[in-house]
Design brief:
355 residues, alpha+beta, 2 domains, 6-stranded mixed sheet, 3-stranded antiparallel sheet, 55% helix, 19% strand
Length: 355
């Protein structure tokens, strides 16, 4: 922020555009139709002149100079603007226009391709300037569908077409993402295992799984839609506490009432916020928000069911062979759950650098 403010102050103080960079931005417009993607790329003359070695930059506003450097400029940006639809797309560059009032050049291009279900966009136009950003507008059939900003910290984005093929592409992307997330999340896995350690019939286990699903689905949706977004430094310790609670409940309940479904529902609400933090980082496409949210949640459920079937079956087989051994495993497992939850809680509260 301080660097951007310094750039603004320099612009106000400088008598000439040659001494300041008033707009460290590029602008990319993509227009998607059935058999073609047409686009324009607007770049500031200071950025183009820097990388082309032209001084002063204002020379590029001369039509003959701009056209004379067109091949060099397109060769430069071709390396930095990559569009893919399952495979890299070939960009055919056209003419160049000087835009004196914006101190910029506008490049025209065209890509001959069937309408893509998903379009992967990479744009890191002028890496010499860490603050440089590229503003992207995506149009489909004449309507503006999505806007976003790409930068050195986030140079990639995926656009999903508003078609049946686009919805299928969303499902194929976000279902595996949901499965992957729960399978690599040791805290979510340990919470589920804690709920399963005491066993029970399939009816009881179904209630637990259903309750957890309802809980995390509610908060996943609320957070992903930016309706309720508690910060990770609250949610991550709360997830650790949920693990401690379920392990402790296993140790003290004895022959008391089975409240695991209620625990699953209550703390499922907390875990849903954790899922949403990951989904938000993954990037929800606005043009396919419903499908992406639904697909990610389905993926989470598939991963969850895999864990439940594996753990519940193993514990049931163990108890069938020896009830005593099964009870000891449940006791020892509950101690491990409490210990792991305590470790994560301390780490996330007192050493939160990784949150």
């Amino acid at each position: 922020m301080a660097k951007k403010l310094a750039c603004l102050l320099a612009l106000l103080a400088a008598p000439s555009l040659a001494f300041a960079h008033p707009a460290p931005f590029s602008y990319l417009d993509l227009r998607i139709a059935n058999d073609v993607i047409e686009g324009t790329l607007v770049v500031h003359i200071i950025d183009a002149a820097h990388d082309l070695g032209i001084d002063p930059p204002e020379r590029l506003l001369d039509r003959s100079v701009a056209y004379g450097n067109l091949d060099r400029l397109t060769a430069l940006v071709t390396q930095r603007l990559v569009l893919s639809a399952g495979r890299p797309l070939m960009i055919q560059w056209g003419d160049v226009d000087a835009i004196p009032e914006r101190q910029a050049l506008q490049l025209h291009f065209r890509i001959h391709t069937p309408r893509p279900a998903r379009l992967d966009i990479h744009a890191l136009m002028f890496p010499y300037d860490r603050l440089h950003q590229t503003f992207v507008n995506v149009y489909e059939d004449g309507g503006l569908r999505q806007q976003f900003v790409l930068s050195a910290d986030s140079a990639d984005r995926t656009y999903y077409a508003g078609t049946t093929q686009g919805a299928i592409a969303v499902i194929r992307t976000f279902v595996p993402a949901g499965i992957h997330h729960i399978l690599i999340g040791p805290d979510h896995i340990l919470f589920l295992i804690g709920l399963l350690l005491l066993g029970g019939g399939w009816k009881a286990l179904l209630k637990i799984v259903t309750a957890f699903t309802i809980g995390h689905s509610i908060t996943l949706s609320l957070a992903a839609l930016n309706i309720v977004t508690p910060p990770p430094n609250i949610i991550e310790p709360a997830i650790a506490l949920s693990i401690i609670f379920v392990g402790a409940d296993n140790l003290v309940r004895g022959g008391g009432r089975d409240v695991r479904a209620l625990i699953a529902l209550t703390f499922g609400l907390v875990h849903g916020f954790g899922f949403a933090n990951v989904l938000r980082e993954f990037g929800l496409p606005r043009e396919a928000l419903g499908w992406s949210l639904f697909s990610f949640n389905v993926g989470v459920e598939i991963g969850q069911l895999f864990i439940v079937l594996l753990v519940a079956t193993a514990l049931a087989l163990l108890r069938r062979r020896s009830e005593l051994v099964g009870s000891r495993v449940a006791f020892a497992g509950s101690l491990v759950v409490v210990a792991a939850g305590t470790y994560w809680f301390v780490q996330r509260v007192f050493f939160p650098a990784g949150i």
